[in-house]
Amino acid sequence: MNANEAYANLAAHGRTSADLASSVSLLSWDQQVMLPPAAHPGRAGQIGAMTAILHRRATDPHIGEWLAACEGSTLTADPLTPEAANIREWRRDFDLAVKIPEGLAVALARAASAGQRAWELARKDDAFAAFAPHLATLLDLSRQKAEALGYAGEPYDALLDGFEPGETVATIAPILAELRDETTALLDAVKGAVPPAPLPAEPYPQADQQAFLARVTALIGLPAAASRLDVSAHPFSTLIGPGDARITVRYDEADFTKALFGAVHETGHALYSLGHASDDRYGTPMGEFVSLGVHESQSRLWENQVARSLPFWEHVLPLAARHFPTLAGLAPSDVFRAVGAIAPGLIRVDADETTYNPHIVLRFELELALLRGDLLVADLPGAWNEKSRAILGLTPPNDAAGCLQDVHWSMGAFGYFPTYSLGNIYAACLFEAAETAIPDLAGRMAAGNFAPLLKWLGQNIHAKGRLLRPRDLIAAATGKAPTAGPLLRHLKAKAAAIYGV
Amino acid sequence: MNANEAYANLAAHGRTSADLASSVSLLSWDQQVMLPPAAHPGRAGQIGAMTAILHRRATDPHIGEWLAACEGSTLTADPLTPEAANIREWRRDFDLAVKIPEGLAVALARAASAGQRAWELARKDDAFAAFAPHLATLLDLSRQKAEALGYAGEPYDALLDGFEPGETVATIAPILAELRDETTALLDAVKGAVPPAPLPAEPYPQADQQAFLARVTALIGLPAAASRLDVSAHPFSTLIGPGDARITVRYDEADFTKALFGAVHETGHALYSLGHASDDRYGTPMGEFVSLGVHESQSRLWENQVARSLPFWEHVLPLAARHFPTLAGLAPSDVFRAVGAIAPGLIRVDADETTYNPHIVLRFELELALLRGDLLVADLPGAWNEKSRAILGLTPPNDAAGCLQDVHWSMGAFGYFPTYSLGNIYAACLFEAAETAIPDLAGRMAAGNFAPLLKWLGQNIHAKGRLLRPRDLIAAATGKAPTAGPLLRHLKAKAAAIYGV
Q: Which residues bind Zn(2+) (chains A, B) (predicted)?
């Protein structure tokens, strides 16, 4: 078989797998948005049957043969062509997939399913001991997975690499430590300052919020013809297939900003998805997202750098006031200050922009210690509370508000948390670069013109798919290696504007 | 391998296939109810990829080995046990599936997809000539399919048997001819009579209709926790999996009865689906519907025998008047008469209960002639118009209102139409038997108590799955072989009550 035939086979195989994966995405979206209650028990089996088929396709020995026919051919001569990138990334996916024995994959899936149920109950009852054996099993299986995948430094690296290709403990630990130290210093600095006035807690009827969100998401570039906005208990974004990006929010009638920032955040994910998954590239690595960190950078940039900025509110406040008359008396700077308030709390998902990163560092340090065997599962609650005191200055009153608050570990997702902070870091790097690249970006945003920013992100991030490793992608887009500098400058500038510190 | 192991393998294989088929059902439901416009082109590929997997599973040679180990074992000793019925029906499905060469299956699927698109355009433009070559291809492939499947009488039998197991031209032609002659005589008899007064055409706001439908569908037994009611261009019912029956309607704000009868019709389908597809039997033939005719009998019974009856309106009119104040002055008999009006027209889907069956006979006679080669595709429009004059006394002004009005032939579904009339016939047989079995059924319905009827249908039809052939199932439920008699009695009694003929 010649290289071009083999490449065509890889592309066809990938496209069919992607078309099949659409079913899994749809089953999962439907479960969270549409599924009648009585059908919930059956959905796991439906998703499981599809997952097994996708796993078998991902490890199909033909892939190895086709790759061998492509590698070293003219298709791979220039590593920056889409073909070469696809072949390189197909190889990465195939080698990783075949390294995991089917028995381990099944054991992990079962433990994750059981672990998630046990975690839900344990959190409800504040009963860490009931969850502990599940966590121990998941840690053990994750260590086995790391050994199967292999690593140069330590087991954690193998797991992190699955979420953020190319990153290791050695590359992210210093950047996270810098974030921790600088942001906790910032938290200390604003501790005594006068907090901004909150927005009026008038009722914001759900129907009005919905109309407002349709307007705002369209304004920043989400095409209505290629998306849906629905309601779910936990807001999320999913791509079902080309031209089909779906986001969800949760409405709070006392605070319209929760659904707003949720919708803008998920719109950031959706814009990235629609930008990389064009119909002609869907099913190839060039039509896929490159990492969770880069995905998160897109949601965070639109949420934090855009929708929490003063220029955004200069354009959007009059629009919001038409939907919510109670906002009529406010100035854009009032909203900018209110939504930029810094208020450390115990719960990550409720954290403000500044407090968010210390939450992540706390989790990273603890999961690293667990993986290394430096921390025993039984000692996790105490270690969590101690770190919470040290980093946030707050002690959880119970484990439900402490080490049981997040779902990730119950699904065996160790190495996932750092991608949130990488997303924040990358978002700030990208926005600084966009401000340089786009003349008067703030002025354009204040005029409701977000198209230049979306176009810049589309060209520099979305359309690149998996052409470059995440860190190299950000470097190529911004002209310099990513650091925590831009994020820290962004947070400090905002603290200065709002708190005068 | 012993018989019990083989049976367990068949059951597991069947359950996984059913779990995978859920994805196809969901992709299809979503396409008609939720899908963003930009995603429509990609949906065919997603459904196609799933269909290919299901076809491969249905023809898996292991099935033949497992069946061989079961057949003749103690599991098949008593043909009326669920195990014996499952083995018999698995055999039927497997033998049919492997008889169709993959090339023919693919050619049929492609021709159906192309045919449907060509039909949509041809109907819009009233251009039969543009659709004719597609119809010729579909006829040719359907004849090949009939030859591959085999038949005792004629090719049409093989196709009909796929929709209505056990039926042949010889068994249904006489019953359909009787229906044609008796109902056209009835149409003649009411021709001069004074028609009942129509219902007020006041606006019936969609939100009010929706609330009313939720109430009515729950009243007749559709569990809200195991169903959804949505909107689509063409009303339909689908079972995604256990506990997940979804129906759709279309709202007309000038006429609330359109959505009402649509919803009750689809609820009849959904109740049957929920009744046979219990979680423990899902994926085995005992957990599947037995035929299209029996499926249609359930929708028609609830629509025609129940929701168009006087007792139904005695209970439901006061309820309807609460949602639609304009109905307040009416008596139940006014509504009963209005919704029982007989008004022959050209379009099948708009036909009243009496005119509906002649529409079906017209199509059956024409598709039979096409399959036999007695009618050429080019001569179809003329033959249609001639039969329309002879049977309905009406001549279509164009082919869009004539031989191009239905989608079925454009998808290659020859042999499908008769199942609609069989459904009407079976519905009337079942309702007559239920009236005998349930003391004072009319009185219970007038009191809003539909549970005894649903229970009787559940025990005698729903729970039986594919235990018996359709005709035997109806005979077992009613105590006698099904005939057109009960349906004709039902239609004549209604004509007498409304038109005094």
A: 265, 269, 296
Best B240, B279, B282 member to test A by mutation, with max A CBs in 10 Å, is B240
A121 with A27, same domain: the answer is yes
What's CA A444's distance to the chain center, in Å? 27
CA–CA distances in Å: residue A102 to residues A89, A336, A469 = 22, 51, 28
**Residue that finishes a domain, picked among B99, B118, B146:** B99
Sort B55 into a burial class: Cβ within 10 Å, 0-12 / 13-18 / 19+. middle
pLDDT at position A234 over 90 = no
The CA distance from A283 to A86, in Å, is: 10
> Does residue B494 lie within any of the structural domains?
no
Residues of chain B found within 8 Å of residue A45, distances taken between Cβ atoms: 15, 19
Rounded Cα–Cα distance for residues A180 and A42 (Å): 43
Burial B285-305 (b: 16+ CB within 10 A, else e): bbbbbbbbbbbbbbbbbbbbb
Q: Does B35 touch chain A (CB under 8 A)?
A: yes
Residue B433 lies in a domain: yes
Residues flagged as binding site of B for Zn(2+): 265, 269, 296
**Interface contact B225, partner A, CB < 8 A:** yes
Strand partners, B487: none
Residue ending a domain, among B53, B69, B99, is B99
Does pLDDT of B44 surpass 90? no
Q: What is the mean pLDDT of residues B152-161?
A: 98
At A114, is the pLDDT very low, low, confident or very high (cuts 50, 70, 90)?
Answer: confident
Q: How confident is the model at residue A74 (pLDDT cuts 50, 70, 90)?
A: very high
Tokens 């009852």 belong to A125
Distances (CA, A) of B239 to A348, A488, B26, B165: 40, 53, 9, 21
User: Encoding tokens for residue A11?
Assistant: 């592309």
A487 within some domain: no
Average pLDDT value for residue range A364-374: 98
Interface probe, candidates B15, B16, B17, B22, chain A, greatest A C-beta count within 10 A: B22
Q: What is the pLDDT of residues A432-489, one digit of tens each?
A: 999 999 999 999 999 999 999 999 999 999 999 999 999 999 999 999 999 999 999 9
Q: Residue A75: which pLDDT band, with cuts at 50, 70 and 90?
A: very high
Q: Is A164 a catalytic residue?
A: no
Same domain for B91 and B210, yes or no, is no
**Predicted local distance difference test score (pLDDT) of residue A117:** 85
Q: Are residues A20 and A140 in the same domain?
A: yes
A23 and chain B in contact, CB less than 8 A: yes
* ipTM attached to this prediction: 0.93
A41 touches chain B (CB under 8 A): yes
Residue B217 resides in a domain: yes
Interface test with A, best of B17, B19, B247 (most A CBs within 10 A): B19
Sign, CA torsion A37/A41/A47/A49:
negative
Residue B221, domain extent = 206-331+425-484
Residues A139 and A236 in one domain: no
CB-closest option in A26, A36, A240 to B226 = A36
Distance (Å) from the alpha carbon of B322 to chain A's nearest alpha carbon: 25
Of A88, A107, A110, the closest CA to residue A148 belongs to A107
The CA–CA distances, whole Å, from A180 to A174, A176, B221 equal: 10, 6, 59
Q: Edge to edge, what strands does the sheet with A237-241 contain?
A: A227-231, A244-249, A237-241
Contacts of B243 in chain A (CB under 8 A): 36-42
Q: Mark yes or no for CB contact B26/A22 under 8 Å.
A: no
Distance between CA atoms of residues A401 and A495, nearest Å: 27
What is the pLDDT confidence band of residue A283, given thresholds at 50, 70 and 90? very high
Q: Which residue's structure tokens are 């502990």? A: A132
Q: Is B16's Cβ below 8 Å from some Cβ in A?
A: yes
Contact: B38, A244; criterion CB under 8 Å: yes
